[in-house]
Amino acid sequence: MKKNQMLFKMLSIVCLLSLLAACGPAATEAPAATDAPAATDAPAATEAPVVEPVTLSLLGPANENDMLMVKALTDAYTALHPNVTFNIEVAASGGSEVDNLVKTRLATGEMNDIFYYNSGALLQALHPSDTLLDLSKEPFIDNIAESFIPTVSQNGGTFGVPVGFASGGGILYNKKIYEQLGLSIPKTWDEFAANNEAIKAAGIPPVLQTFGDTWTAQLFVLADNYNVAQTDPNFAEDYTNNKAKYSDSPETMAGFDHLREGFEKGWYQPDFETTLFPQGMELIANGKVAHWAMGTFVMPAIASNYPDKVNDLGYFGMPGADASKAGTTLWMPLAFYAPKTTEHADAVKDFFAFVSSTDGVDAINAKVLPSGPYLIKGSSLPDDVAPFVNDLNAYIESGKAYPALEFLSPIKGPNLEQICVSVGTGQMTTAEAAAAYDEDVKKQAQQLGLPGWDN
Amino acid sequence: MENQPRAISVLRSYPYWFYLPAGFLFVVFFLIPTAMSFYYSLTRWSLFDATFIGLDNYKAFLEDSQLKLAFRNTIIYAFLTSGLKVIIGLPLAMLLTSRIKLPGLYRSLIYFPVLVSTVAVGITFYALMQPSTGLINVTLGALGVSRINWLGDPKLALYSVIIVDIWKGVGIAMVLFMAGIQSIPLEYFDAARLEGGAWVKFRHVILPLSRNTTFTVILLSFIGGLRTFDLIWAMTGGGPGFASDVLTSVIFKQYQAGFYGLSTAGNVIMFVLVTIIAYPLMRFFNRMEIEL
Q1: Is the domain of B228 the same as that of B273?
Q2: Which of A4, A94, A122, B93 is positioned for an S-S bond with B177, CB 3.0–4.6 A?
């Protein structure tokens, strides 16, 4: 009996200890052995006196287009600094699953040294001033375009460096179909609708929807922000302060209305309810559909899958009501951030300095299809860019571009994807969808604790 | 029952602190988190900080415009899956306990889906149920059946998931029924053989005497149906739009959105709801149980 008691006590203690260990912060991940260079590398030793091998863990994007840029940057940096290697972890999937993962890791102090995440409204929900490494005092912040800084800032701190280029959100279209049918670029929604009918009459589905990946459904609404701002320049501010709603006017509801119209008029391709994003890239690149409400940020992925089709694709902004004002909504690039808990703050900052330099831009341009203006001062695009980039730049140069709402307001309702699918499959009316989204926005604003939203 | 006194003395020789390790784990991993979740359901919680807001989360959860549909879907799902698993599982069990060739093979084939990961099943069926290119519609098309939009039609999506759930879960029901049938004393079957044919055997022997098993199957799959999540999430994500949302997927989406307090309140509501529905059902079944 005595012996048994001893054994039991010991077991309990072991059990307790292992529990405590499990609660502590996770041990640093083992460095990736694959391409870690030998510590005795000669060139590194001459450049800097202390070169300890460092492995930075990086939570990368789930989607292919963005991963191309992340890889281009990390590979180029490791080539310059062989002592630094990256252990890139791929987020399981996109959209709200990533939001969830990032929030949980930050709250439990288990975030990777670097992570890749949206700028704008989604960043605000991470409580960046409590959780992220403040970069506002770093010299490399001066290299970043002023227009980008507010989208990665909170309470006077700046937390991110831009990865890649600004994009247009509007309509990608297949130029070959336009040539075949003798169509011209629509400047208003009515012209767009007329084009769609002509394309449909020719036996081609005019509009691509990839509702199987629900995030893609939002573009008709989000990319309409340029048009909303043309009729109500104060919308973003009033919306943030609970003084304007989507259900207020036909102009603000237009995005939902367009989704519904496309459904009613049969513009969407067969199987659109379950078509996935990668299938969408195949359909638009090969001219099996004519239009896709999408961001130009998908073009590098299309280019790497269908390199000979890139020149077949053009771009125009989301058509609105007034032809003289036709323009585009702009998306800021996503950014790299570091959590306060990183043990390699200096190494991370040095990498961020590289990302915010023209060398970083060159590294991306060398590996990824140049797709839009970079947010790094002194950087430029090559002369021979693909046609869609010229289409986008024409809007920017003539001042007919305006940021998406998520870069002007901290509030983005989490259910917009499902609401857009509902209205785009005919399950909700335009007014119901707008009202449902207003409710969703209210919940998010209350969760963020914004003033003016207490019931 | 001559070994009963010995059993009690064996029980007594184990002191209460033998419960300690299990009890400790139960308290740390179940009781404390449960109590905490009741508290957090009363707060606006961002994982970083929590503000006490009283019952606002419960109000917001119950006012959600999609909740009614999700609740309806949950009941339909639980009802249909548990009912059909009985209706399909019992005949299968009867067939496979009777004298047929290769019973082991058929049992394995029907039980096999139970062993496969639910998410893997969901992803596989997402591909199989594609309206134009999926194997199911291609096969049906060859037989002259017109295109069925299994997961894309908002009216059909929930039922498509239910079909897959039954395919995946009927193996368990079948195994339970087989055990139930095999525990019926053979004398009853002999009597049935004298009285008449297969119908008598089914109606007056198997059906009444496997009542306990039937209740077990219904109760298990009904509670399972109320709490179902993984298959729906893998196949439709609650969509198209909100068409196949169930309580768990609504709660999960709120959690994903970062509404941690709200989703915790939803979990508490679901806990209460499952108890309210399942407990009386269990009491009723217990009263109706029979002695073999």
Answers
A1: yes
A2: B93
